[in-house]
Request: fold
Amino acid sequence: MSPTPAYKRVLLKVSGEALMGERDYGLDTETVTRIAADVADVCAMGVQVSLVIGGGNIFRGVSAAAGGMDRAQADYMGMLATVMNALAMQNALEKRGVPTRVQSAIPMASVCEPYIRRRAERHMEKGRVVIFAAGTGNPFFTTDTAAALRAAEMGCNALLKGTQVDGVYSADPRKRPDAQRYEQLTYLDVLARDLAVMDASAISLARENRLPIIVFNIHAPGAFVQVMRGEGRFTTIVE
Ligand code: UDP
Reply:
């Protein structure tokens, strides 16, 4: 087992739903604490880590719009939901002694820093975890796209997508036991086969910036560390 991390700087995207644990809504403190522990272990390896956390466990714009709400208004609510998740993760990381900064794409001076690229980069160089909150700051986007955008801006070596299963499958393996698991895919494979891994704008942005995407199971304790060593089970999406 090689102790050397394969990456210097990464961005991990965690969906809001991943923070729910067994709940139907909101945050499960135990789950947030466990994911924070994995992030702390990766930081201890010397990897510079940043995070984008979704908001789907609290509010999803597209669902509210389907219920009759104005889409842009609903999306702003969704972005605010991601700030709550970011603050919960910051709390869990700092409890483990990991210095963490939250930067929001929607400025809210009394809660966290505004997003400033150069400052975020400096935080990372100093070994602080930066959590990018409020997505891209624009309605009609998703936190997947925000993750690809921030990873490109930060010059990350890889974009990690923590999901419910250990990689990308041809169908949901929890519903379809015959689903095929992929070890490696190209960006175009994902787009052409419409694989449910990240939305198309996130995949396109990663492709334009030659940013490898690594999909792994966020709920398997220690999986993040293993992936950083190039071990364990994951799917890589590259050119
Ligand atoms: N959102 C947005 N612009 C962004 C990112 C997110 O409007 O750049 C809103 C959108 O309403 C979305 C919600 O925030 O539904 C929560 O984000 P997302 O659905 O990506 O969270 P996840 O599915 O990862 O939990």
